[in-house]
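Hi U.,

Before I forget, here's the chain from the pilot set. I'm dumping it here mostly so it's searchable later in email.
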Amino acid sequence: MTPDEALRRIAFLLEWREASPYRVRAFHTAADAVRDLPSGPVDAAQAERLRGIGPVTAEVIAQASTGAVPSYLATLQAAADPKALAGWDLATASTGDCHLHSDWSDGGSPLEDMADAAHVLGRQWAVLTDHSPRLTIAHGLSPDRLERQLEAVAAVNSRLSPEFRLLTGIECDILEDGSLDQDEDLLGRLDIVVASVHSKLRSEPEPMTARLLAAVRNIHVDVLGHCTGRIITGRGRPPSRFDAEAVFAACAESRTAVEINCRPERRDPPDDLLLQAAAAGCRFAVDTDAHAPHQLRWQSTGYARAARIGLGADRLITTWSLVRLLTSRSGHR
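Structure:
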């Protein structure tokens, strides 16, 4: 066991037990810090000199640096729900993330930084999904800007390790008639298309259902993003109303994955719809919807939700190899 693995696992198990977010974050911060440590045994005093490391995390680092399971982690694991351990296994099996943003739209970091952060976390691939033109508030990509972004992604991939690939993609607005907010030819050139509703979220159930059905059946769509559009923090926003049975049946039939959105303010779909989508036989994409590098760590919360309802890795496309992902996608089309 490495210090990084021990600290990440502790953070996951604490989050499963609904510990304070600040406590969880302390272990993630420590995991980021240990990248600066030399390999081999480290004493607690040496570890505590690192920025962001306190006495508890320093002791975890010292014990794990010898290859041992730290006592703090051993105590958590002994008391853990078996589903929590299954959730950790899913999280460690993660190969990619289908939904992240850069400063080409409303993200805060260059696409190079997002790719580097995903690679550092051990991902094999990640999909750049900046917004489409209609979402002007998010500086959505016109066809010309998307063309230029494809060139930028190719340039980044040319310098990255062959063990990681940044995939081309888009988070495409689902328009009111169910069509997609981007040039059809361009959509056909992308590796992955996430389709999401961002407008008129309080429509009546019948038109919203028709809108979603048209999108998930579209030959270009791979993932249905944050399907209810709800916000559960601050003033909040209620979930959109639609015929979930019909929409999830269409997702299963068309092999369009339902996103398990990991943003803390979304956690979309809600638990009841997540269960319904699982019962319908849907595939899922556990996605961070990250707008900054540190937000890529949120993915473990989605794997915890998947484990709670008994989903295995085969149903989660974000645990698939790049070859399987792209081969399956071409079959979908």
